[in-house]
Design goal:
Elements: H1 2-28, H2 35-39, E1 46-49, H3 61-75, E2 82-85, H4 95-105
Length: about 110
């Protein structure tokens, strides 16, 4: 009997996530800006939100993806600066420094 409860919960959770994702994608897909459209906005900077950095300071896959998009916009001339926001809550964990080093390694200047 407990297995049916677990299966029911998993199915309900999957349906909830699927519907939520569909609503978000459906209501925001017209708000995504291309780099050509973004260049016309006269932006002062491109903001890259932080995410987990690995213990060696390199970006996690999701952070690297965010950085790659920001760097490509920067290199396309969308804005003159990258603004990086992330956690630096302890001496041993610093997302922003890892983000900065990655951007520099990809050809962005300090």
């Amino acid at each position: 009997m407990a297995i049916y409860a677990v299966i029911g919960f998993v199915v309900a959770a999957a349906i909830t996530v699927g519907i939520s994702n569909g609503v978000i994608v459906g209501t925001t897909k017209n708000k995504i800006t291309t780099s050509a459209e973004a260049s016309e906005l006269d932006a002062q900077c491109i903001m890259v939100l932080g995410a987990y950095v690995n213990p060696d300071g390199t970006p996690s896959w999701i952070l690297q993806d965010r950085l790659d998009v920001g760097i490509s916009l920067y290199k396309a001339g969308v804005a003159p600066k990258l603004l990086m926001s992330g956690d630096n809550g302890s001496n041993t964990y610093n997302e922003v420094e890892g983000m900065k080093q990655y951007a520099i390694s990809q050809g962005c200047s300090e």
